[in-house]
Amino acid sequence: MRATVIGAGVAGLACALELAERGASVEVLERSAQLGAGSCSWFAGGMLAPWCERVHAPPLIVALGDEGFAWWSEKYPAIVRRGTLVLAHARDGAELSQFARRTEHYEWLDAAGIAALEPDLAGRFERGLYFKGEAHIDPRAALAALAERLGSLGGTIRFATEADSAAAQDGRRVIDCTGLAARSVLTDLRGVKGEMLHVRAPDLTLTRPVRVLHPRTPVYVVPREAGHYMIGATMIESDQASGITARAMLELLGAAYALHPAFGEGEILEIGTGVRPAFPDNLPRLVQRGGTLYVNGLFRHGFLAAPALARRAAAFVLEGREAPEVMR
Amino acid sequence: MLTLYDVPLGSRLLLGTARYPSPAVLAEAVKASATEVVTVSLRRESAGERAGQGFWSIVRELGVRVLPNTAGCHSVKEAVTTAHMAREVFGGTWLKLEVIGDGDTLQPDVFALVEAARVLCAEGFDVFPYTTEDPTVAERLCAAGCRVLMPWGSPIGSGRGLNNLFGLKALRARFPEVPLVIDAGIGVPSHAAQALELGFDAVLINTAISQAADPARMARAFAQAVVAGWEAHQAGPMEPREMAVPSTPIVGTALLR
Fold it and tell me: Most buried residue, A147, B41, B90, B221, by most Cβ within 10 Å?
């Protein structure tokens, strides 16, 4: 079997790797000139947090995400499995109670429990939720690891290459993972803009993703390498990744500063925006249209759901095995 | 029947469209609620020209009347600009006017609200102003040309229900002819029923439904509560009394030992 995967975001690379590992000859066509450029995967949080996501997603996301831990551990050994900490300031206590009511697989922490996990947060929060089994990865390093692994299996990535996904590619099976760019075919796709920041705050040590709940501006902080943090992310119904608004930046930084004042002394390294592709139910799908299999709609669950979707895509392409839960 | 700006409506429940888990869940909730009016915020969704097209077309396809709102606006100028954009995107003249005075409590800035209402009414908008229960402000809004008022129950998103019963009742009594829609602060269906029992014409609900674990089911619950509250109001509720009043006469009943 020879396959062409269009799009080298996390969905495309995961699909390519699954196919290559099962013996297919795979080439990936990527519109942009280098890995990650122009892909919303580049701006992802990289949280593997299926149980937290349950707060606003149906059980399917938990099921798909749960498959991701083992997959990422094998493909990306630098995965950090230290759980997720969910906090709220005292005045937003109701948010925390509601979060707890809608989710599972956590334990309640008091101030001492929070300090034991993240000493720099000592004395700042009275209550929190700890989702022990969750994990996080650095999305950029993870994309590079997938690309490298694909290369070692003989797969190729051709950058700066446009592809007409509708055209049959001389007998090759086509898997389209182009996100919002597939909108002309998948007409019910829409964009949900996200804005994020990278900040270096060397005075602060956090070792796991921290979510701070708030009725209007919830944020998360994900540690990267030492002293470097990703702060995200807004959710705006918009198809355009055009720059960050001052308000969004103010809200993200304000929330980070309220989490820990050391962010106030931090250096802003990067401001990023991306547009997440989403179907109306915000759930991912495999769609067979013409000779092409579309893997799309990963919304805010790209790194979380890509492994499970890639497996199903490969099983469908190579064995004709359907996955009704994502082929609605 | 409820009539807002000469449009007769079969439902006394209006829905906000923000913060649903997904547009699909929003569509289910709208259907379950049997509402005929949804309000949609333009400001946050429109970072670029027409950038929110995807979501807006979903809202249009709900098949109900759209009441665009100016949520998040903090000044007269911002609100007026947003109103113009709303007219372009959704057509129509309806506009829910919000001018926020305090970003933390989301309390309306009633001074700017009256001014923006004056400008927009003069431009031909049918303005639904989000206001407090203050009767003087209500008076000014009516003088500015508003023919519907949307007093808050309690602060946006708080879910506390009708905070100032005395003030709300006084407002209802003072403006018997103006449709009054309780906007903001409703947490559970009993709050909505209470508003209708007091004679308010309708309620607008967002967070209480969108943030429920099962929004469609909560929408149905609100639809029932609104019907119950309005029916109760029409049926003429009894007056509460200080003392127990037996519902069957005591005189003549057998004495049981």
Answer: B41
**Whole-number Å distance between alpha carbons of A19 and A145:** 16
Asked if B48 has any chain A CB less than 8 Å from its own CB, the reply is: yes
Q: Where is A67: in which H helix or E strand?
A: helix A59-75
C-alpha distances (whole Å) from A133 to each of A110, A207, A211 are 19, 14, 15
Whether the full predicted model's pTM is greater than 0.90, yes or no, is: no
Range 17-36 of B in CB contact (< 8 A) with A: 21-25, 27
Encoded amino acid at A222, one letter: V
User: Which among A56, A58, A237 has CB closest to B52?
Assistant: A237
Q: Which of A102, A240, A282 is opposite residue B51, by nearest beta carbon? A: A240
Interface contact B102, partner A, CB < 8 A: no
Q: Which residues of B touch A216 (CB under 8 A)?
A: 157
List the structure tokens of A212: 């701070």
pLDDT confidence of residue B97: 95
Which residues does chain A have within 8 Å of residue B22's beta carbon, measured at their own beta carbons? Answer: 278, 280-283
Spatial separation of the C-alpha atoms in residues A295 and A284, rounded to whole Å: 8
Nearest CB to B48: which of A242, A279, A280? Answer: A242
| Residue type, position A130, single letter | Y
- pLDDT tens readout for residues B8-34: 999 999 999 988 999 999 999 999 999
CB contact at 8 A, A180 and A189: yes
CA–CA dist B127, B95 (Å, integer)? 5
Q: How would you class B173 by CB atoms within 10 Å of its CB: exposed for 0-12, middle for 13-18, buried for 19 or more?
A: exposed
| φ and ψ of A258, to 5 deg | -70, -30
- Please state the ipTM of this predicted complex: 0.79
Cα-flanking dihedrals φ and ψ of residue A269, to 5°?
-95, -35
* CA dist., res. B116 & res. B101, Å (int): 13
Q: Is A162 exposed, middle or buried (0-12, 13-18, 19+ CB in 10 A)?
A: exposed
Pull the structure tokens for residue B232. Answer: 């109760």
Nearest-Cα distance to chain A for B155, in Å, is: 13
A23: left (phi over 0), alpha (psi -120 to 50) or beta: left
**Residues β-bridged to residue A292:** A174, A289
